[in-house]
């Protein structure tokens, strides 16, 4: 009887929690602007009149990374929480996690707290746990950022976190992801083809025809605020099937943007401090705190800081070719002022393109970077990119 009572109590709490989640999102739906336009979430389109529950499921299924506290000190003697400085790193984790979900589970996969999740899902989560052995942990990202000129505890802009992800991906032998970060607002097809056609990191693996691609395009769409001429093209990016979201926000406040409705952006906010999750290697992760089960945030597109990083995931070469066609049709031919350029060949006035390669070491490069003695709390704004 005692066991039955405990089971009933647990079941009641689960139902109550699930009901609260539905109520919270219902408030979000009721609060949406009364417009006939659909909601776009990472390439998926939802009619609010007929697809409300599907919209709820999609948003809730995105992996949500926030500030955490009480994890092992970064570098052994550094901070044990990233509250106040790690928001852009957390957004970087979210955009990469979305790429990995698409890679292993597909864009149509949905998270259900009542069901058992695939082993690939838990393996993805293990990549981001807050401990130094996890490939994309806050520990690895913060220490790899030292090589980008950022002290542990210093605030990052979208371009810097993209460079950190590109370096860390070299040590990820499971996903064999190619991370390409564009330069000078220019995406070079030839360079991407070279990056994605490389052999994997492990010699024992046979060469791949095409390594899955996370394409990150850092941009500055204005001086102090976003130039209105870019807004429609910016929204078009969320409509593309390859959309992986956008890194951006406001000075010192980073958000992960996943879609839009009318003139408002929908985003996941990392500015919630949660307890670090302690999970043994290989075991299932208690994942309730890794999904945003509250009202998603919205903001006017015109309030966005002009410095952003667009993200796209292309699982195959055909997927990338399709993305190139969409960019030509929707962004380049229809716009007088282009957000970025897409070119076939490597510009002759640029230094030669050399695909990044994994150093000949048995551990990640981040572990070779000593944590600085002095931690900095930076109040810098988003970095200004070359235009």
TrEMBL record:
SUPFAM superfamilies: Cysteine proteinases
Class of the enzyme per the UniProt entry, highest EC level: hydrolase
EC nos: 3.4.22.-
Domain Peptidase C54 catalytic: start-end pairs: 53-325
Listed GO biological process terms: aggrephagy; autophagosome assembly; lipid metabolic process; mitophagy; piecemeal microautophagy of the nucleus; protein processing; protein transport
GO molecular-function terms, A-Z: cysteine-type endopeptidase activity; protein-phosphatidylethanolamide deconjugating activity
Reaction(s) catalysed by this chain's protein: [protein]-C-terminal L-amino acid-glycyl-phosphatidylethanolamide + H2O = [protein]-C-terminal L-amino acid-glycine + a 1,2-diacyl-sn-glycero-3-phosphoethanolamine
Record's keyword terms, sorted: Autophagy, Cytoplasm, Hydrolase, Lipid metabolism, Protease, Protein transport, Thiol protease, Transport, Ubl conjugation pathway
Gene Ontology terms: cellular component: cytoplasm
Record's subcellular location: Cytoplasm
Family: Belongs to the peptidase C54 family.
Role: Cysteine protease that plays a key role in autophagy by mediating both proteolytic activation and delipidation of ATG8 family proteins.
Descriptive protein name: Cysteine protease
This protein's encoding gene: atg4a
């Amino acid at each position: 009887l005692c066991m039955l009572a405990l089971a009933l109590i647990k079941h009641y709490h689960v139902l109550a929690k699930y009901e609260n989640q539905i109520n919270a999102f219902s408030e979000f739906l009721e609060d949406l602007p009364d417009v006939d336009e659909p909601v776009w979430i990472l390439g998926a389109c939802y009619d609010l009149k007929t697809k409300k529950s599907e919209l709820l499921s999609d948003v809730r299924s995105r992996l949500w990374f926030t500030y955490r506290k009480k994890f092992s000190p970064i570098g052994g003697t550094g901070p044990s929480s990233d509250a106040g400085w790690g928001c852009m790193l957390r957004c970087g984790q979210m955009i990469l996690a979305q790429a990995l979900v698409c890679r292993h589970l597909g864009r149509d996969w949905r998270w259900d707290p009542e069901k058992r999740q695939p082993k690939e899902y838990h393996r993805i989560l293990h990549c981001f746990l807050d401990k130094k052995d996890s490939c994309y942990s806050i520990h690895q990202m913060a220490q790899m950022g030292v090589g980008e000129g950022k002290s542990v505890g210093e605030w990052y802009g979208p371009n810097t976190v993209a460079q950190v992800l590109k370096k860390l991906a070299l040590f990820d032998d499971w996903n064999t992801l190619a991370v390409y970060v564009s330069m000078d607002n220019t995406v070079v097809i030839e360079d991407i083809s070279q990056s994605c056609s490389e052999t994997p990191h492990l010699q024992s693996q046979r060469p791949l025809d095409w390594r899955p691609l996370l394409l990150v395009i850092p941009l500055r769409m204005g001086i102090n605020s976003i130039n209105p001429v870019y807004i429609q093209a910016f929204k078009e990016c969320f409509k593309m099937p390859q959309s992986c979201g956008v890194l951006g926000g406001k000075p010192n406040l980073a958000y992960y943007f996943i879609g839009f409705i009318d003139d408002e952006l929908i985003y996941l906010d990392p500015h919630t401090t949660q307890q670090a999750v302690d999970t043994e290697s290989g075991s299932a992760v208690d994942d309730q705190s890794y999904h945003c089960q509250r009202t998603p945030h919205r903001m006017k597109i015109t309030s966005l800081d002009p410095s952003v990083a667009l993200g796209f995931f292309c699982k195959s070469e055909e997927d990338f070719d399709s993305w190139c066609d969409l960019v030509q049709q929707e962004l380049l031919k229809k716009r007088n002022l282009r957000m970025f350029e897409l070119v076939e060949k490597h510009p002759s006035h640029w230094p030669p393109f050399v695909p990044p390669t994994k150093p000949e070491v048995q551990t990640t490069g981040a572990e070779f970077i000593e944590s600085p003695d002095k931690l900095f709390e930076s109040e810098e704004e988003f970095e200004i990119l070359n235009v």
